[in-house]
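User: Predict Bifunctional hydroxylase/dehydrase's structure from this.
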Amino acid sequence: MIIVGAGPTGLMLAGELRLSGVPVTVLERLREPTGQSRGLGFTARAMEVLDQRGLLSRFDSVATSTSGHFGGIELDFGVLEDGHFGARGIPQARTEAVLEEWATELGAEVRRGCELVDLTDDGSGVDVDFEGPQGAERLRASYLVGCDGGRSTTRKKTGIDFPGSEPTLEMFLGDVRGMGLRSRFLGEKVTGGMVMAAPLEDDVDRIIVCERGTPPKQRTEPPDFSEVAAAWERLTGEDIHDATPLWVSAFSDAARQAAEYRRGRVLLAGDAAHVHLPAGGQGLSVGVQDAVNLGWKLAAVLNGWAPNGLLDTYHEERHAVGVRLLRNTRAQGLLYLTGEHMRPLREIFAELLEHGEVARYLAGMVSGLDITYEVGPGDHPLLGKRLPPRKLLTGSGVTSTAELLRSGRGLLLHGGDAGIRESVSGWADRVDVVAAESAEDADRDFFTKDTDAVLVRPDGHVVWATPGGGELGAALRRWFGSPA
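Assistant:
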């Protein structure tokens, strides 16, 4: 199995595959990590996904807040049960280091300085040509996943279309030292554009500069800091030319999505599948969730137990998530980055967010907590949704729903039905069966008041529940194949 790209998506996918014993090689163009951190955290759903693999504890600390925004308009994420804006203050470089450490501990091979040149899918495997430290090389794999960013070579060489909207403006992003800028964490609309400043550490500020009326440039190199400082001064009147730039880059409001997330034996995930305005910290987070959705399905195919059509559900489920991602980030850009002619819309939008139902809808969308997949017949309210975090009491002591998913296997969680373990014995090599009761509320059964049992996929989404969730055997066959 070959993955192209050692960013958060590629490394998360490598770890997911290794949990199921699949040999993985990750090819990364860069010889060393850049140390740059475009992202500074991840959404609430991404936090849950990382916790399900035991990765949150590897970060020094994880700070969350219910305070966030939608297009620069304050939004209280506390309107959701278990809701918050997500992790803050975690540099992307740290996230990548944690994921690489985890993936390599599990046995993934990360080969740096290896740039994809070409690929050939002959229907039975993929030949991958790349330029490595020792020159031209070729590897063959059963499948190839491109996690190589918005300019994905994998996507281009496979011929997958990347339709969407052209950029209309350019923004600068960077970290500067020595200025002690006034905090503008949610961004500040100013005449001519928008600026953001957020203190990091060691006298370092993260800045974003958006100046309207500046056509996007076709850049092959990062902008010079003098260009960034000049734009900041035009918008704020503050001179930051004497700051020490640690790094700067430019990005646009282009929004594009791959027409296919899978073509034959080549798949796409993360920025290779979708690019958009970085609003609400969703890019890294959706990429990580792409990887967790895909990893167990690919492993099922390679390990020989995948039911027919399982791998096709990756495109069906995640492309729909990508559509919503592009829609909400474009909407946020219109609210956040446009001129005074949009003020009436912003004011009405702020009024709408005072209504709980509207706030819950948008908070669920941006956080990823409302993602729902089509998983089969039934009317149980948990079907297709993520398994909410709960503390549980089992025969082995107190645990949590996240801890029970650490293995990357399926999970059948029940309240003590003596016959349920026998009914799923044929899937014991891929589904864990756990009897539990609530460790939080004596008046509630093992999970929720009106739930007797749930079947959960390795990515944490419920595919069967009782009462009202259909037939257990049918759900097992649909998602976990034929019994051994």
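The domain at 391-480 is CATH 3.40.30.120 (Glutaredoxin).
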